[in-house]
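[Meeting: bench + compute handoff]

Bench side (C.D.) handed over the final construct sequence. Compute side (W.E.) agreed to return the predicted structure before the next meeting so the bench team could plan truncations. Sequence as handed over:
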Amino acid sequence: MPQQPWLPYVVLGAAVLVVSSAAIMIRVAQAEGVNSIAIAAWRLTIAAVLLWPLAWAKASKEIGALRKQDWLFGCAAGVFLALHFAAWISSLGYTSVASSVALVSTNPIWIAMVSWLFFREKLGGWLVFGIAAAIAGSALIFLSDAHLVAGTGGNNPLLGNGLAVVGSITVCGYLLIGRRLRKTMSLLPYIWLVYSSAAITLMITAIAAGATLTGFSATAWVCLVALALGPQLLGHSAFNWALKHVSATFIALVILGEPIGSAMLAWLIFGEHFAPLQLAGFSMLLAGIYLASRGERPR
Protein backbone atom coordinates (compact mmCIF):
# COMPACT_ATOMS: atom_id res chain seq x y z
CA MET A 1 0.00 0.00 0.00
CA PRO A 2 1.50 3.37 -0.94
CA GLN A 3 2.32 5.87 1.82
CA GLN A 4 -0.02 8.51 0.38
CA PRO A 5 -3.41 7.88 -1.30
CA TRP A 6 -2.53 10.31 -4.10
CA LEU A 7 0.74 8.55 -5.00
CA PRO A 8 -0.71 6.15 -7.62
CA TYR A 9 -2.24 9.07 -9.50
CA VAL A 10 1.02 11.03 -9.53
CA VAL A 11 2.95 7.97 -10.72
CA LEU A 12 0.40 7.25 -13.46
CA GLY A 13 0.44 10.88 -14.61
CA ALA A 14 4.23 10.85 -14.91
CA ALA A 15 4.09 7.49 -16.72
CA VAL A 16 1.68 8.87 -19.32
CA LEU A 17 4.05 11.75 -20.03
CA VAL A 18 6.93 9.32 -20.55
CA VAL A 19 5.08 6.85 -22.79
CA SER A 20 3.73 9.72 -24.89
CA SER A 21 7.20 10.06 -26.40
CA ALA A 22 7.14 6.49 -27.75
CA ALA A 23 5.22 7.21 -30.96
CA ILE A 24 7.60 10.05 -31.86
CA MET A 25 10.71 7.90 -31.37
CA ILE A 26 9.14 5.01 -33.26
CA ARG A 27 8.39 7.29 -36.21
CA VAL A 28 12.01 8.52 -36.23
CA ALA A 29 13.34 4.94 -36.12
CA GLN A 30 11.02 3.92 -38.95
CA ALA A 31 12.25 6.90 -40.98
CA GLU A 32 15.79 5.58 -40.40
CA GLY A 33 14.78 2.31 -42.06
CA VAL A 34 14.19 0.12 -39.01
CA ASN A 35 11.47 -2.50 -39.47
CA SER A 36 8.49 -2.17 -37.10
CA ILE A 37 8.93 -5.70 -35.68
CA ALA A 38 12.62 -5.00 -35.14
CA ILE A 39 11.73 -1.84 -33.20
CA ALA A 40 9.40 -3.82 -30.95
CA ALA A 41 11.94 -6.61 -30.51
CA TRP A 42 14.82 -4.31 -29.57
CA ARG A 43 12.64 -2.19 -27.28
CA LEU A 44 11.78 -5.21 -25.12
CA THR A 45 15.15 -6.95 -25.48
CA ILE A 46 17.17 -3.95 -24.32
CA ALA A 47 14.77 -3.44 -21.40
CA ALA A 48 14.97 -7.13 -20.42
CA VAL A 49 18.78 -7.23 -20.64
CA LEU A 50 19.03 -4.18 -18.37
CA LEU A 51 16.65 -5.82 -15.87
CA TRP A 52 18.44 -9.18 -15.64
CA PRO A 53 21.34 -8.22 -13.30
CA LEU A 54 19.09 -6.05 -11.12
CA ALA A 55 16.39 -8.73 -10.86
CA TRP A 56 18.80 -11.49 -9.89
CA ALA A 57 20.68 -9.26 -7.43
CA LYS A 58 17.56 -7.98 -5.67
CA ALA A 59 14.89 -10.64 -6.20
CA SER A 60 16.61 -13.97 -6.92
CA LYS A 61 14.94 -15.68 -3.94
CA GLU A 62 11.47 -14.59 -5.03
CA ILE A 63 12.15 -15.61 -8.63
CA GLY A 64 13.34 -19.01 -7.47
CA ALA A 65 10.19 -19.45 -5.38
CA LEU A 66 7.77 -18.70 -8.24
CA ARG A 67 5.14 -21.36 -8.77
CA LYS A 68 4.54 -23.07 -12.09
CA GLN A 69 1.32 -21.11 -12.61
CA ASP A 70 3.20 -17.85 -11.96
CA TRP A 71 5.62 -18.73 -14.76
CA LEU A 72 2.77 -19.68 -17.09
CA PHE A 73 0.73 -16.54 -16.42
CA GLY A 74 3.82 -14.32 -16.56
CA CYS A 75 4.85 -15.74 -19.92
CA ALA A 76 1.28 -15.36 -21.19
CA ALA A 77 1.32 -11.69 -20.16
CA GLY A 78 4.61 -11.34 -22.03
CA VAL A 79 3.12 -12.84 -25.18
CA PHE A 80 0.17 -10.43 -24.98
CA LEU A 81 2.61 -7.54 -24.52
CA ALA A 82 4.63 -8.72 -27.52
CA LEU A 83 1.49 -8.92 -29.68
CA HIS A 84 0.49 -5.45 -28.51
CA PHE A 85 3.78 -3.85 -29.52
CA ALA A 86 4.05 -5.78 -32.78
CA ALA A 87 0.58 -4.65 -33.85
CA TRP A 88 0.73 -1.07 -32.57
CA ILE A 89 4.25 -0.22 -33.78
CA SER A 90 3.39 -1.71 -37.18
CA SER A 91 0.27 0.49 -37.31
CA LEU A 92 2.42 3.61 -37.08
CA GLY A 93 3.91 2.71 -40.45
CA TYR A 94 0.50 2.82 -42.15
CA THR A 95 -1.57 5.50 -40.45
CA SER A 96 -1.09 8.77 -38.59
CA VAL A 97 0.26 9.08 -35.05
CA ALA A 98 -3.02 10.59 -33.79
CA SER A 99 -5.23 7.83 -35.23
CA SER A 100 -2.91 5.04 -34.14
CA VAL A 101 -2.44 6.24 -30.56
CA ALA A 102 -6.12 7.12 -30.13
CA LEU A 103 -7.31 3.73 -31.39
CA VAL A 104 -4.77 1.71 -29.40
CA SER A 105 -6.02 3.57 -26.32
CA THR A 106 -9.58 2.26 -26.64
CA ASN A 107 -8.73 -0.65 -24.32
CA PRO A 108 -10.96 0.62 -21.44
CA ILE A 109 -13.92 -0.71 -23.45
CA TRP A 110 -12.47 -4.22 -23.53
CA ILE A 111 -11.04 -4.04 -19.99
CA ALA A 112 -14.35 -2.95 -18.49
CA MET A 113 -16.31 -5.62 -20.37
CA VAL A 114 -13.95 -8.43 -19.38
CA SER A 115 -13.74 -7.21 -15.76
CA TRP A 116 -17.53 -7.09 -15.53
CA LEU A 117 -18.21 -10.38 -17.32
CA PHE A 118 -15.47 -12.60 -15.87
CA PHE A 119 -14.24 -10.92 -12.67
CA ARG A 120 -17.62 -9.62 -11.46
CA GLU A 121 -16.02 -6.19 -11.00
CA LYS A 122 -18.68 -3.55 -10.51
CA LEU A 123 -18.38 -0.37 -12.55
CA GLY A 124 -19.29 2.70 -10.54
CA GLY A 125 -21.26 5.57 -12.03
CA TRP A 126 -18.27 7.92 -12.23
CA LEU A 127 -16.17 5.24 -13.93
CA VAL A 128 -18.90 4.57 -16.49
CA PHE A 129 -19.21 8.28 -17.25
CA GLY A 130 -15.43 8.55 -17.44
CA ILE A 131 -15.17 5.69 -19.91
CA ALA A 132 -17.94 7.15 -22.05
CA ALA A 133 -16.30 10.60 -22.15
CA ALA A 134 -12.84 9.20 -22.82
CA ILE A 135 -13.98 6.92 -25.62
CA ALA A 136 -15.99 9.76 -27.16
CA GLY A 137 -12.86 11.89 -27.03
CA SER A 138 -10.85 9.17 -28.77
CA ALA A 139 -13.52 8.94 -31.47
CA LEU A 140 -13.36 12.70 -32.08
CA ILE A 141 -9.57 12.56 -32.42
CA PHE A 142 -9.87 9.68 -34.86
CA LEU A 143 -12.54 11.39 -36.95
CA SER A 144 -10.60 14.63 -37.08
CA ASP A 145 -7.35 12.92 -37.98
CA ALA A 146 -9.01 10.73 -40.60
CA HIS A 147 -10.39 13.88 -42.25
CA LEU A 148 -7.02 15.63 -42.15
CA VAL A 149 -4.96 12.77 -43.56
CA ALA A 150 -7.42 11.48 -46.13
CA GLY A 151 -5.37 10.98 -49.27
CA THR A 152 -2.23 12.47 -47.69
CA GLY A 153 -1.53 10.47 -44.55
CA GLY A 154 -0.31 6.91 -44.08
CA ASN A 155 -0.09 4.66 -47.10
CA ASN A 156 -2.81 2.31 -45.79
CA PRO A 157 -4.88 3.95 -43.02
CA LEU A 158 -7.43 1.10 -42.92
CA LEU A 159 -4.73 -1.48 -42.23
CA GLY A 160 -2.98 0.81 -39.76
CA ASN A 161 -6.18 1.53 -37.85
CA GLY A 162 -7.01 -2.18 -37.75
CA LEU A 163 -3.57 -3.01 -36.35
CA ALA A 164 -4.01 -0.30 -33.71
CA VAL A 165 -7.30 -1.91 -32.60
CA VAL A 166 -5.55 -5.30 -32.40
CA GLY A 167 -2.91 -3.62 -30.24
CA SER A 168 -5.66 -2.27 -28.01
CA ILE A 169 -7.30 -5.66 -27.53
CA THR A 170 -4.06 -7.55 -26.85
CA VAL A 171 -2.86 -5.07 -24.22
CA CYS A 172 -6.00 -5.94 -22.23
CA GLY A 173 -4.69 -9.47 -21.69
CA TYR A 174 -1.40 -8.01 -20.48
CA LEU A 175 -3.12 -5.70 -17.97
CA LEU A 176 -5.66 -8.22 -16.69
CA ILE A 177 -3.08 -10.96 -16.14
CA GLY A 178 -0.84 -8.39 -14.50
CA ARG A 179 -3.61 -7.44 -12.10
CA ARG A 180 -3.81 -11.07 -10.96
CA LEU A 181 -0.06 -11.67 -10.66
CA ARG A 182 0.71 -8.36 -8.94
CA LYS A 183 -1.46 -9.43 -6.00
CA THR A 184 1.24 -11.92 -5.02
CA MET A 185 4.37 -10.89 -6.96
CA SER A 186 6.48 -7.83 -6.28
CA LEU A 187 7.24 -5.46 -9.14
CA LEU A 188 10.81 -6.39 -10.05
CA PRO A 189 10.38 -10.16 -10.60
CA TYR A 190 7.08 -9.52 -12.37
CA ILE A 191 8.43 -7.09 -14.97
CA TRP A 192 11.58 -9.22 -15.37
CA LEU A 193 9.47 -12.25 -16.26
CA VAL A 194 7.00 -10.41 -18.51
CA TYR A 195 9.54 -8.26 -20.37
CA SER A 196 11.87 -11.23 -20.89
CA SER A 197 9.14 -13.46 -22.32
CA ALA A 198 7.93 -10.61 -24.53
CA ALA A 199 11.48 -9.98 -25.78
CA ILE A 200 11.99 -13.66 -26.65
CA THR A 201 8.63 -13.78 -28.44
CA LEU A 202 9.40 -10.67 -30.49
CA MET A 203 12.96 -11.71 -31.38
CA ILE A 204 11.73 -15.10 -32.61
CA THR A 205 9.00 -13.36 -34.60
CA ALA A 206 11.45 -10.86 -36.11
CA ILE A 207 13.89 -13.61 -37.15
CA ALA A 208 11.07 -15.74 -38.60
CA ALA A 209 9.80 -12.71 -40.55
CA GLY A 210 13.27 -12.03 -41.94
CA ALA A 211 13.48 -8.57 -40.34
CA THR A 212 16.90 -6.89 -40.28
CA LEU A 213 18.11 -6.58 -36.67
CA THR A 214 21.51 -4.91 -37.11
CA GLY A 215 23.27 -2.29 -39.18
CA PHE A 216 21.09 0.63 -38.07
CA SER A 217 22.17 4.26 -37.96
CA ALA A 218 23.30 5.93 -34.73
CA THR A 219 20.04 7.88 -34.65
CA ALA A 220 18.03 4.66 -34.87
CA TRP A 221 19.99 3.05 -32.03
CA VAL A 222 19.51 6.12 -29.84
CA CYS A 223 15.75 5.84 -30.42
CA LEU A 224 15.73 2.12 -29.62
CA VAL A 225 17.68 2.55 -26.38
CA ALA A 226 15.52 5.54 -25.40
CA LEU A 227 12.36 3.49 -26.03
CA ALA A 228 13.66 0.79 -23.69
CA LEU A 229 14.76 3.17 -20.94
CA GLY A 230 11.86 5.64 -21.03
CA PRO A 231 8.49 4.32 -22.24
CA GLN A 232 9.29 0.69 -21.33
CA LEU A 233 11.33 0.59 -18.10
CA LEU A 234 9.94 3.79 -16.61
CA GLY A 235 6.48 4.12 -18.20
CA HIS A 236 5.21 0.54 -18.40
CA SER A 237 6.87 -0.42 -15.12
CA ALA A 238 4.97 2.43 -13.45
CA PHE A 239 1.72 1.05 -14.87
CA ASN A 240 2.62 -2.39 -13.50
CA TRP A 241 3.40 -0.90 -10.09
CA ALA A 242 0.03 0.84 -10.03
CA LEU A 243 -1.82 -2.42 -10.80
CA LYS A 244 -1.45 -3.31 -7.13
CA HIS A 245 -3.16 -0.11 -5.99
CA VAL A 246 -5.85 0.79 -8.56
CA SER A 247 -7.98 -1.21 -10.98
CA ALA A 248 -6.84 -2.29 -14.43
CA THR A 249 -9.84 -0.40 -15.84
CA PHE A 250 -8.68 2.89 -14.32
CA ILE A 251 -5.09 2.39 -15.53
CA ALA A 252 -6.36 1.65 -19.02
CA LEU A 253 -8.40 4.84 -18.86
CA VAL A 254 -5.47 6.96 -17.69
CA ILE A 255 -3.40 5.64 -20.60
CA LEU A 256 -5.93 7.42 -22.81
CA GLY A 257 -4.01 10.57 -21.97
CA GLU A 258 -1.20 9.30 -24.21
CA PRO A 259 -2.76 10.71 -27.42
CA ILE A 260 -2.70 14.16 -25.84
CA GLY A 261 0.98 13.90 -24.95
CA SER A 262 1.89 12.43 -28.33
CA ALA A 263 -0.01 15.15 -30.20
CA MET A 264 1.65 17.90 -28.17
CA LEU A 265 5.09 16.43 -28.81
CA ALA A 266 4.30 16.21 -32.52
CA TRP A 267 3.30 19.88 -32.38
CA LEU A 268 6.53 20.88 -30.61
CA ILE A 269 8.87 18.69 -32.68
CA PHE A 270 7.22 18.43 -36.09
CA GLY A 271 5.10 21.59 -36.03
CA GLU A 272 1.82 19.66 -36.44
CA HIS A 273 -1.16 21.86 -35.65
CA PHE A 274 -4.34 20.89 -33.80
CA ALA A 275 -7.69 20.86 -35.55
CA PRO A 276 -10.73 22.11 -33.57
CA LEU A 277 -12.19 18.60 -33.46
CA GLN A 278 -8.91 17.24 -32.09
CA LEU A 279 -8.90 19.83 -29.31
CA ALA A 280 -12.47 18.85 -28.42
CA GLY A 281 -11.39 15.20 -28.28
CA PHE A 282 -8.41 15.97 -26.03
CA SER A 283 -10.70 17.91 -23.68
CA MET A 284 -13.12 14.97 -23.46
CA LEU A 285 -10.25 12.58 -22.75
CA LEU A 286 -9.07 14.69 -19.85
CA ALA A 287 -12.63 15.03 -18.57
CA GLY A 288 -13.03 11.24 -18.72
CA ILE A 289 -9.87 10.67 -16.72
CA TYR A 290 -11.00 13.18 -14.10
CA LEU A 291 -14.48 11.63 -13.78
CA ALA A 292 -13.02 8.14 -13.43
CA SER A 293 -10.56 9.32 -10.76
CA ARG A 294 -13.49 10.50 -8.64
CA GLY A 295 -14.89 7.00 -8.55
CA GLU A 296 -11.56 5.21 -8.00
CA ARG A 297 -9.93 4.56 -4.64
CA PRO A 298 -6.36 3.22 -4.13
CA ARG A 299 -6.35 -0.38 -2.97
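W.E. noted at the follow-up: Residues 7-295 form one domain. C.D. will use this when planning the next construct.
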